[in-house]
Amino acid sequence: MEKEGRTLNSHNNIPKPTLGRLPAYLRYLKSLPPECKTISATAIARALGLGEVQVRKDLGSTSGEGRPRVGYITGELITSIETCLGQNAMCKAVIVGAGKLGSALLDYEGFSVYGIEIAAAFDSRAGEWEFSQKGKPIYPMGHFSNFCRLQDIKVGIIAVPKDAAQEVCNLMVKNNIPAIWSFAPAQLSVPEGVTLQQEDLALSLAHLCKQI
User: Whole-prediction pTM value?
Assistant: First the structure.
């Protein structure tokens, strides 16, 4: 379930499938030689095995239409996609719950492609100096409020048991975190102006199995 509230960037209306293809466009464009000043949707589609209409639609969501007989200015297109993905202004997030799921999310490197940095995790059982396998800090809950204030945290990720989820959610709201992503199997409540997205992994897997 997703509750509408404040948005984190001006490209929040881009469809998820399009957003998922943008990193591939960016990698391809950055692989081009310096002398390739312009690029056509046809060339991009051919290189990535996509439909030309789809490519035009995707790029139109980020930078407008290409120029007739010219195509897209390669440098401008790269900048536009990077801006859309948030790479020019990283969005900082924190995780509460450093169990198996929380630790996996903390060390996952794929978020950075979309301009998201998982700055730290917090856990009620954490000691003063703990780190994930990839060196990310894991702090005790007593450091949560001060860390969020100093780091200007924009996203809170909940990876705790359902009985503790609403309390953690309330703590995030209290610390002015505008967006919350919850993996706890519990129905949460947030005030107006806070965006809440809840994931039910078991339900998603069950839905997938029904499609077989």
Answer: 0.73
